[in-house]
Amino acid sequence: MSSHIPVPKRRNGKPQSCEPCRKSKVRCDHTTPVCTRCIAHGVERNCIYHPAPLTKPRSKPVSIPRQIQRGPPIFPPSPVPDQNGPGQPPRPPTWSLLSMQTPRGIEAEFLGPTSFSAVIDDNRDVVDRHTSQFPKISQEVDNCRSEITEERIVAGMGVLQLLMEVPNMGDIIHQYHNISYTYMVPAPFTEACVASMQETFHGPAAKLKKKQLRKHVLDIFENTHKPLKLFPSIIAKDYHTLFTGPNLRWEIVGFVLCMLGVSLRYDVRTGSEAHTAALPMQRSKSIMYRILEAVAYCTTVCQACNSVSHQALWLLYGDTCLKKLVFGDMSYQFWQCLGDLSSMYYALGLHHDHVKRRHCVPYYQYELCRKYASQIFSIDKTFSTLLGRPPRISGRYCRNIMAADVDDSVLFLENGELEEALRNFDENGWNTDGNFRNSTWRRMMLIVCQFREEVLEVCLGAPPDDIRRQVQDLLTRHEMVWNQIPSHLKYDEITGSEHVLPPQKYVMMTAYMDQNYSRFLLHRKLVKTTECSRESLYKISRSLLATVLQLIALSDQTSDMHRDISWFVSSMLSSKISFSNAKSHIYSLLRTTRRQHPSS
């Protein structure tokens, strides 16, 4: 087969070999467009003459940075398991995270109407007509078990050993779910993942030897390398089987570790001894830092695998919550995690709620996406306010639709039972049974944070021309929407919502303070930029301080919440209200609170 197509020349002037011949290190006859040897071996599609052939670069395996410098090492030093027998040379390193970065389908990530994908979709008939003329080329994916370092395998074994050290992690996480309303992933899905992992690592057949543990690590690496469908056709009760059991992935291992760390860090005061029974007090601190490093290992592996999925979002969200509790709201570690979480939010298209999606995916998956979107949007606004920084997620590009105000168990219903459960709403979408749920709190926070973004524009952006009119418009609209929430779901400052249980009262009070704080910021901005009266600012400040002190009293009944509300107090003291005036308010409110709650 001959042709007039010239063959590229090498530096020494000799003709360049085709890629298959060059890689096989055999003589090429330089025939174009396909050489004789490639025709004989049936690999014509691979026969190309690369103008600048590249050899594989020599690079060191990717190492996971040690993010935690305090506490003992995550995994105690242990010898590498000898797989070759005594007297044999050590096995050469296998696995490299770099080799795992194989191309993935772009359908896994959200691409908006300005992307190249949208241009192709708009002209799909033309594109298909022309591409059909070319032969189809199948992408060959290398086996992901080909190259991984033994050091990385041993580190993965250490992560699994850490899970095996906490046999009661299911009870610990379940207790956290019982007293918390602020978790993002519904409790039944999280606890299904935990139960599956406990069966694997703590069940009757869970006495794993080093060889078995090593095989588990390799299997988890291989599973993590496989892409996950964003909207699989599977019922809710079996959803966890896609990424647990024999399909276990590092995203889930890291997420469960995050939930374990958050549950341990949450200072529960309900009289239960589940925490201390599972982990002695002297070990809790060291295990916390080992959990942090194990989660860092999982996130690094998932990033190297280019994991873009809802389960990767679970891991990033859990890591964000854990960093907040350990390092604090003001830490850069926490702020950096928020950035990664926002990037995944956009990559999954959570800002772009497709109404048509509801008719082609299971109901629970549709609702899960709305829960994720509301939670992350609210977190972004809350901590942007705390740090005085512009939010990473702009509401201008988000179509936030509130999730249904139902129990998590409703997500597992189907057909007629599901339709019946979705009828118990008022005209504004709130439940009519009077119960306060995780979804109730999430809906309230979404309302508050949608207005909070407008408040941040006023407070952090350029001063508007008519600030009085803009602030008054914001206050009017905010009050109108807040009043649409049923009164039994809101905290009552006058009565103190005495009939409400402490865990529920806590989240009701935080939502109430958040909406009140938006009003405080607007009035404070007016006082600073105009000559208006400070009376409204004084009134809102007194209300906030009173609620904060009630929350401190409530802390003795549920959990240690001082770290969560300290910034409210500091905001009051750093406002334009004179310090002496604020101090007198604090003293008077403290006296009132102590009379009502002597134990505080």
TrEMBL record:
Signal peptide: none annotated. Residues 17-49 form the Zn(2)-C6 fungal-type domain. GO terms for molecular function: DNA-binding transcription factor activity, RNA polymerase II-specific; zinc ion binding. Its main location: nucleus. Residues 1-23, 50-92 are annotated as: Disordered. SUPFAM superfamilies: Zn2/Cys6 DNA-binding domain. InterPro entries: Sec_Metabolite_Reg, Zn2-C6_fun-type_DNA-bd_sf, Zn2Cys6_DnaBD. Coiled coil: none annotated. Keywords: Nucleus. This is Zn(2)-C6 fungal-type domain-containing protein. GO terms for cellular component: nucleus. It comes from Oidiodendron maius (strain Zn). The keyword Flavoprotein does not apply. It is found in: Nucleus. The lineage of its organism: Eukaryota, Fungi, Dikarya, Ascomycota, Pezizomycotina. Transmembrane segments: none annotated.
